[in-house]
Design a protein that fits this description.
Chains A, B: It comes from Lentinula raphanica. The structure is a homodimer. Chain A is of the alpha/beta class. Chain A is built from ten helices and twelve strands. The mean pLDDT of chain A is 91.
Chain lengths: 325, 325
Amino acid sequence: MLEANRRAHQHGIDLSKLPQLLDMNADTITDNVHAINANCPDDRLKFIFKHLIQHLHDFVRETSLTTEEWMTALEFLKETGKMCSDIRHEYILLSDTLGVSSLVDAINHAKPPGATEACVLGPFFTEDAHEFQQGDSIASEGKGDYMYVYGKVTNTKGEPIPGAIIDTWETDGHGLYDTQYADRTEPDCRGRLFSAEDGSYAFRAVVPVSYPIPSDGPVGKMVSALGRHVFRPAHLHMQIDAQGYEKLTTAFYPRGDPYLYSDAVFGVHSSLIVDLKPVTDKELSLKRGFKDGKTHMELHRDIVLATPEEGQAARKQTMPAVAQK
Amino acid sequence: MLEANRRAHQHGIDLSKLPQLLDMNADTITDNVHAINANCPDDRLKFIFKHLIQHLHDFVRETSLTTEEWMTALEFLKETGKMCSDIRHEYILLSDTLGVSSLVDAINHAKPPGATEACVLGPFFTEDAHEFQQGDSIASEGKGDYMYVYGKVTNTKGEPIPGAIIDTWETDGHGLYDTQYADRTEPDCRGRLFSAEDGSYAFRAVVPVSYPIPSDGPVGKMVSALGRHVFRPAHLHMQIDAQGYEKLTTAFYPRGDPYLYSDAVFGVHSSLIVDLKPVTDKELSLKRGFKDGKTHMELHRDIVLATPEEGQAARKQTMPAVAQK
């Protein structure tokens, strides 16, 4: 016994200070775990684990989970771990498909009324995108159907924001990001540009298309077992960063996509749905730089940035009382 | 759009039957995920995921989890996956240390009043244990301090159960199971015997000692961050299987162990605590087969098995109403 005390002390544990708890049954075990975790020196960690344990245990009790079901869950988590690599994070995909990523995003990136809503970053942003001038094309020739994107970056008062850094990326006409091609040498269908003096921006791109999330792993199997499909609706990513404003990570979703209402990762907000308008005016098409003045789609969208103060005020509303204590 | 419908059909999905949902914010996303999962063809799976999603999302909302904290959690899960191998299941250890294994056990193996309580199996049971006769020693010479274990196997009416298969296993005096030695050639400190005509059993063993759970991985780090130690109190495992009765997996914990009230995996029930009694009677010690009639500890414990009907009735009480619907 003294030996055990000595060993515990080596681990920085004073056994006499631990709660004297026993009798783990379905009714008492949760309080027992809380009591043992009450020694946690980090208040935030203690708070998080208190809620984690409570929900995990309530889940098991409410479902009267069987031993076999719980083992299936633990095996699923082990398999999910096996699927991870330096370039694949199957747990992020799990979080995405359970709607948790989108929820965490909604809580942490809530915006004030009038500001453009945020949505999940996704796994396809890269740091190596080229810089473009207004009107340039971010997609090389032959990558898909032509699309012209333009609008204005302003604050919530409607004042233009010049010099905002605009990062944008999208799939090609095959539903693939450039990084999904094994022979990628250059960035494509992605680029960085800056808003003009009057806050305006414009660039050429291709019409993005819907695509499946990686579905050859445990998460894909889970999604299928739940009777769901694995597709994301088409979208154009945009990330806007301007001094004095909160960085905005968002995306625009063309109306009419059949997956718009069943996004595999719950990313769509109705305020981010845009109408693509066909432009058949050959003169305008030539002026915008499209080859042979071909018919193209037009995406017109203004972007409204929030200040850090406006963002903070909005987030206060999304944070439940318990977490503000 | 037609192309997307065609691709969805290839996955067995009828898009027109999916819920038409949008606007994922902190208040609405949970219902959205429920609605999408409502197509699940397996009722039990649907029920489990409904509760899983609700608790996972409530947890995130109640803690106003930050993006960084959620990424830390996902990285932790990824690291836990990396620690798994054919002989190590770090997720089981995670489940153990969060009290979930013990809770699942309590729900699934609840026993009627009077029957011996169950507790977690643990990872150290093996199939290769040798068979022993009454009075034999399951531990080879020099493995620890002598212990004599005896008692009677009965049903809840007190009637003896003959021919019950008794599997038992324990640590040696160093706090290690035989399987933790790299040079293991034979099973040791484990064995199988059968109860006699009058239900009695007796065998020699060594006094088990407390030991740390594997703490070199992410779970060990988590337990330390929570301000907890990593020790399990000393115990002797027993698993009893007799025709007409429920198989019982349990363990007996000698009173006085300093970790008894803070078991790292929440396995102890007070009804499973036993008093070890020193036996100094040389004659008795010789008769029991101990070398030179040395002083030894005595563990006297009767075991009461439940019938499947008795067990089922007990479990009905531990299963909340919601799961019985």
